[in-house]
Design brief:
mainly beta, single chain, 8-stranded mixed β-sheet, 4% helix
Length: 336
């Protein structure tokens, strides 16, 4: 099976409401919603609320994804709440447990996750949706706006949630984004989760006693989930191949110059892999690879395994400075 793809575009000079409409249309087509749960303007900020019902029978079975699109070079950002009043246009519950703040007209950089860099309507803004053909309830989104890009997903209401999670005790943060990097000849890919509140079912517990905004500065406003790594080639020793700061699962790539049993470099596409302990693994038409090459990539490039039979598209990448000796991580969607 292959993914389906659609690109939503706002041409210069667009308005903030038009950028918000890119997200609306993509989320509707992905099956995340039929329309925004709430939509309002506050001091020039376009506010949009996405409600996802993971289990209506549970106390915290609904998660509210609060998008803010700000004027004057502000980024588009995301906050999360466990409840929302679409009459008062404010989150409900207890501050720091159920929401971070009630500011509808500013982006709090201590806690909001920046979906884009600063927004400028001098250039085209694009949001591309990739929906799995294996599991149509799974979509990944790539936003290109004002010279910055982000690749993210939001777990849908049909997502399979880990059975250990009890949504009577806390809410599910279904927002994940890609984090790709290199260190020496090594490439890594992991997924961030967030932003998090004390009510979040997994790492929110680390915020015990967080009763004001200073408790969140430099904390777990956004945290890594699972991660994978692959080594590049290093002449005459290990060198700095292992210069990483957290555990990763090392994937079986192969360099013909390191191991002659490989008649050519082996950098397969790894698919159907877990990316978070909270939700189901990636469907088989999303995958990752660590490419040995000249490492010049662009979003939307085609990664060919077998022409006309197996072709993937680049959703996110990080080019290794070690050129053909380094492992460059790529996050991919299968298109053929």
């Amino acid at each position: 099976m292959a993914c389906t793809k659609e690109t939503y575009t706002a041409t210069a000079t667009w308005t903030l409401s038009q950028v918000a409409d890119l997200f609306r249309d993509a989320f509707i087509d992905a099956g995340l919603m039929t329309d925004w749960y709430d939509s309002f303007v506050s001091s020039g900020f376009e506010n949009r609320i996405l409600e996802v019902v993971y289990d209506a029978t549970k106390a915290y079975g609904k998660t509210y994804y609060w998008f803010k699109f700000g004027p004057g070079g502000h980024p588009a950002s995301l906050n999360i709440a466990t409840g929302w009043n679409n009459v008062t246009h404010l989150p409900t519950g207890t501050q720091y447990l159920d929401y971070f703040d009630t500011n509808t007209n500013q982006n709090n950089f201590f806690y909001s996750y920046a979906i884009t860099g600063g927004l400028s309507n001098n250039s085209t803004a694009q949001l591309t949706r990739y929906t799995s053909g294996v599991n149509p309830g799974v979509s990944w989104f790539v936003i290109n706006a004002s010279g910055s890009r982000r690749c993210f997903t939001i777990a849908s209401a049909t997502e399979n949630i880990w059975s250990a999670i009890n949504l009577d005790n806390g809410y599910l943060s279904g927002f994940h984004y890609t984090i790709l990097s290199t260190s020496g000849n090594m490439g890594t890919i992991s997924w961030g989760i967030g932003p998090l509140l004390r009510r979040e079912v997994s790492r929110g517990q680390a915020l015990r006693g967080a009763t004001d905004w200073t408790s969140y500065v430099g904390s777990i406003a956004s945290e890594r989930s699972l991660g994978y790594a692959a080594v590049g080639r290093q002449d005459n020793g290990q060198g700095n191949n292992w210069n990483i700061q957290q555990p990763f699962i090392f994937l079986p790539v192969g360099s013909s110059s390191a191991n002659p049993a490989f008649t050519q470099n082996s950098n397969p596409v790894f698919h159907s892999i877990p990316y978070s302990p909270l939700v189901a693994p990636l469907p088989s038409d999303f995958g990752i690879t660590f490419h040995y090459a000249t490492n010049i990539f662009s979003i939307g490039d085609t990664f060919v395994v077998s022409a006309g039979t197996e072709e993937w598209e680049v959703l996110d990448f990080y080019a290794n400075g070690s050129s053909v000796t380094g492992a460059s991580p790529l996050f991919l969607a299968r298109m053929v």
